[in-house]
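User: Okay, second chain of the day. Same drill as before: sequence in, structure tokens out.
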Amino acid sequence: MSAAVRFGVNYTPSVGWFHHWLDFDLDAVRADLDSIADLGLDHIRVFPLWPYFQPNRTLIRERAVADLVRLVDAAAERGLDVNVDGLQGHLSSFDFLPAWTRTWHRRNLFTDPEVVEGQAAYLRTLAAALADRPTFLGMTLGNEINQFSAAPHPDPDPATSEQIDAWLTRMLAACEEGAPGRLHLHAEYDATWYQDDQPFTPAQAARHGAVTAVHSWVFNGTAQRHGRTSVASEHHAAYLVELSKAWADDPRRPVWLQEVGAPAPLVPPEHAAAFTEATVAGVLDCPDLWGVTWWCSHDVSRDLADFPELEYGLGLLTNDRRPKDTARALERAARTGFTAPQRRTTALVVPADPGSRSLCAPGGPVYDAYFRLVADGARPTTVLDTRAADRDHLSARGITEVVTSDQVLPPHKDH
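Assistant: Same drill. Structure tokens below.
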């Protein structure tokens, strides 16, 4: 891992959104990539749509895979490394699942043996197609695929944490079989860290794969509760990075802020650049940060229907590839020299029990205590309650002070 933090963007094609795979236009892709490279970024994360690439369990379309390789080669020509998400899965409020897993062929995404082997074959095929490309970073299993495993999804594929553990092991092994030694990982939305009954657990996020990935969105109650300029909103990404470290076995495990954005109307467009600057400054103060990958590159075209309103304006660039103020804010960060931050010496205790994750969620005592510490000028990290007295663990992480939520928050007063 390089000592320098990577800066990149999740690539949303300006023409056709992710449906561009149906009518792949390399010239349009090249123009998009030019506009990204002009910002001084060094990588993109790309999203093949699973049903378009594997419409039948035993049919992985060679032409689609070839188009993915052409995209990666075009990115390389512009100095951009590429991470590839495999199982899409879920994007911008839409689900994209192949027909062989739904309705008349309804089978569990995580536990059905034939589905699992079909997924493994797909991930292995994509990884193998790119294994000889030096700018291929590696595979992410899918985009926030944990949203299929439990509520609030309207039609979830239920699984136990043990079954999810086996699924993650199998999928990551398939990626490694296809492209040995690359940066293969999995990534979930923040229910993994906040939802008590979510079968994807913090321990899995922090121990499976080459790096830990976190996705930070302040529409999860943070901005609603505290406001866009609050300590909690501007440091939410840093909080997730440091929260993830409590469960890691490796005290220097890298953490990738793989998604973060400025969602309107909670962050109005005229304030998005300031939010971007504050968020990036906060997360750059986290040791062992692999990179920051903004959501997203280009706005969704207004010609496309039925997206939530906020999705249309999340791009760093407009639909006609003009950079916004947010793009310039990220560009400044990417082009500025980076000094590795000092270790964080104060650790807030968090529950190891995954059934108590809501204590860490917006409104929970761990969450509130963390941001009270930040507001008071501290640079906190976190430690599991089961490791809070483990001197070797604390020493390995540079922790010299351990505090609990009760010690940080004012006493509760009954009314």
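The chain has a mean pLDDT of 96.

User: Thanks, on to the next one.
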